[in-house]
Every structure is written in C-alpha cells, then in structure tokens.
Design goal:
The chain is α/β, with parallel strands linked by helices and about 270 residues long. It contains ten helices and seven strands. It has two domains: about 160 residues, Alpha/beta knot; about 60 residues, Orthogonal Bundle (Helicase, Ruva Protein, domain 3), CATH 1.10.8. The protein is about 40% helix and about 10% strand. The chain binds S-adenosyl-L-homocysteine.
C-alpha cells in the first residue's frame, strides 16, 4: 500500500513507526541540518531519522521553513518534524552536546580527524550514553564552512565512487541514521572508554578554547594573525582526545595559573 501524505498533528501511527524501539543512546542523538535550502529535504531527513529510531532534529537557519513540502516529504514522520527546533546559529543548535561530528562530501584542506560512518556511529552512541551528541549536515550547494567544521571534533564522509561524492542531504542522513541505529542496537562502542567524569559539553570545550587562545596571546606565544591556523590545529588535537568535564576543569585551572603567573611577573 502506498503511503498517504499526512499533515499536521504530531504522533500517530506512521507506517515506519519506531516508537517501540528502545536502543540505548538514540534519544540523545541530535541531527542538525545547517542552512537547508529545500524544505522537502528537511521532511525527507525527518522520515529517514524516524525509520531508525531517531527523533531529535535541529534546524539552523533553514532557507524556507516551515513549508508544506517538508510535511509532504516527512510522510508519517510528522512528530519528528513538529518537534524540530529552529536555531539562528550552529553554536546554539549544539548547546549541551558533548560530541559533535560533521559530515562532508569532500576532503578538506585541513585534515580533521576523519571517521568512517561505522566508527562515527559507534563513537557517537558511546558518548550518547552520557548526554546529548550531534551529527551535523551541511547545505545542499556548499556543505559546511570551515568555521562550522571548527565546532566539530571529527568529520565523517560516506564513501562513494571517485568523482561523484555528493549525496542528497536526506540520503546522507538516512545512511548515517542507519549506522547509528545499528550501533545502538548492537551495543557497539559500549565497551572501553569508561570515564569517572561525563564527557565535556560543546559549550565547556568552546570556553576552554577561548581561554586557551587568550592565554596564548597574553603570554606572547600566539599572534592571532600569524599563523591563523594554530587554533584550528589545536582544536583538532583536543578534538581527538574526547575531553571529559574533569579534564576541562584541570586545563582551565592550568590556564588560570599561567595567567596569574604572567600577571605577577613570576
Ligand atoms: N557541494 C557540497 C555538497 C553538499 S551535499 C560539498 O561539497 O560539501 C549536502 C550535505 O549532504 C553535505 O554537507 C553533507 O552533510 C551531506 N553529504 C553529502 N554527501 C556526503 C558524503 N559522501 N558523506 C557525508 N555526508 C555527505
């Protein structure tokens, strides 16, 4: 039987209803769509998510939303769409998230740590056991900017044939949602990486980077105009370590002590 277009009310019984799925971690995974141009893609992404038990959708400055095409393409995932939150900026959409992974159709000139879809899913699901995590998708034409990638700790690229690497954004959401679902059901990533402190949130890590940059400047180690990429490289370095909250506290304490020492001329 063909799916009928359903509009409006949240909830209900979509054909692909995963309401009964209880896969640990999935509820903490936020799918973030940045600057989506076609509202139909937002609906198609919501549908893709719902088939895989995901329900938290965040939209950053969508070009046109709400829009009837979104509801049409959601095709039964109206509840996911109805609950989607719209944000003006990416940092707002990432608030509270410990692990943030960006998706990209192409290789970047600065090599961010690159994960396979499977490794990305297992990393995110492991972190999602402790709190919110995010997977970020870019604009249909231009993807994500480098400044947006700076807010993410790693990058995931879905392997494709050479020379035609760009999937429709909702198709990319579908593939990565499937990997997240499989990782959550299989308990992938559950072993190891146990820490006595929860993972640091994106806001805590951002404040650490701001503090680090300020201390590097005040000690004369860093001229922000030269080399401009230093902060990006340091973000990459710390991004690989998956800092926990206690570790961020230690680093902030160290930076504060250095500031005091510089001020006291010691
Ligand atoms: N010309 C753009 C293509 C963007 S496609 C670029 O080069 O970045 C729109 C979005 O879909 C991307 O930002 C990414 O979020 C997702 N996407 C498309 N193809 C992908 C792939 N092979 N791997 C991972 N994400 C992909």
């Amino acid at each position: 039987m063909r799916l009928r277009r359903r509009r409006g009310r949240a909830g209900g019984t979509g054909i692909c209803d995963n309401a009964g799925v209880d896969a640990p971690g999935l509820a903490n995974v936020r799918i973030v769509l940045v600057g989506t141009t076609h509202p139909g893609n937002i609906g198609a992404a919501a549908r893709a998510m719902k088939t895989m038990g995901l329900s938290t959708l965040a939209l950053v400055a969508p070009a046109r939303y709400p829009a009837p095409e979104a509801w049409a393409m959601a095709s039964g995932a109206d509840d996911v769409l109805a609950a989607a939150r719209v944000h003006a900026t990416l940092p707002q959409a990432l608030a509270g998230c410990a692990s943030v992974v960006a998706t990209s159709a192409r290789q970047r000139s600065i090599p961010w740590p690159c994960l396979s879809p499977r490794a990305c899913a297992s990393t995110l699901i492991a972190a999602a056991r402790h709190g919110p995590v995010a997977l970020v998708f870019g604009r249909e034409q231009t993807g994500l900017s480098n400044a947006e990638l700076d807010l993410c700790q790693a990058l995931v690229r879905i392997p494709t044939v050479a020379g035609f690497s760009s999937l429709n954004v909702a198709a990319a959401v579908q593939i990565l949602s499937y990997e997240l679902y499989a990782a959550a059901l299989g308990g992938a990533g559950a072993e190891g990486c146990e820490s006595d402190s929860p993972p640091a949130t994106a806001d805590q890590v951002e404040r650490f980077y701001a503090h680090l940059e300020q201390v590097m400047i005040s000690t004369g180690f860093h001229d922000p105009e030269k080399p401009r990429r230093l902060m990006r490289r340091l973000r990459r370095l710390f991004g690989r370590t998956a800092l926990d909250q206690h570790e961020v506290q230690i680093l902030r304490g160290l930076l504060a002590a250095m500031e005091q020492s510089v001020r006291g001329g010691r």
